Amino acid sequence: xxxxxxxxxxxxxxxxxxxxxxxxxxxxxxxxxxxxxxxxxxxxxxxxxxxxxxxxxxxxxxxxxxxxxxxxxxxxxxxxxxxxxxxxxxxxxxxxxxxxxxxxxxxxxxxxxxxxxxxxxxxxxxxxxxxxxxxxxxxxxxxxxxxxxxxxxxxxxxxxxxxxxxxxxxxxxxxxxxxxxxxxxxxxxxxxxxxxxxxxxxxxxxxxxxxxxxxxxxxxxxxxxxxxxxxxxxxxxxx
Length: 239
Prior knowledge:
By secondary structure, this protein is mainly α.
């Protein structure tokens, strides 16, 4: 079992465990609110009885001997115990989530090391990985895209000159270390990641584009052209 499969297996039980703890927290909270209401009502009643006793002369107005009943004090102690249980449950839920976060950090570190080893062992190539449908791809790769077209570093350089200000509509930050020899794509001039689509113009200078950068959420049907190539085609038709 890989570290990713192991983490997924451990993560599957987390929602159920948290749900049970939160349900118990809700039950404790309902019990606590009910006991607090009872205790407030009891204390108000006892205070009123004490006032009537003092006014009638049956009770000495000495605060050192005036106290609530044992029932009222027991309710207050019970409330404190329930509150302590709620705190303990909240701490357990926090620790449980924190443990999984720490595991995820460890798995991401291992995954990062594996990617680094793969890049070091793989031959240097400026070509993105091919996707099953031939027009989209996920992640970083070394194979050609549509029709075996190769992505050349010179094309990337031209695309960089055409786009002097890199943009990234997806807002995705790449925290993984990037090989300086790894080619970049798209209007954002970043490396291959996530779902990507290839422009159907064989002379496209950029060729591959991230879905988010071109406003796509799914694989386009039929031929698809980037905005630069589409504008070029429209100018040619106008002539």
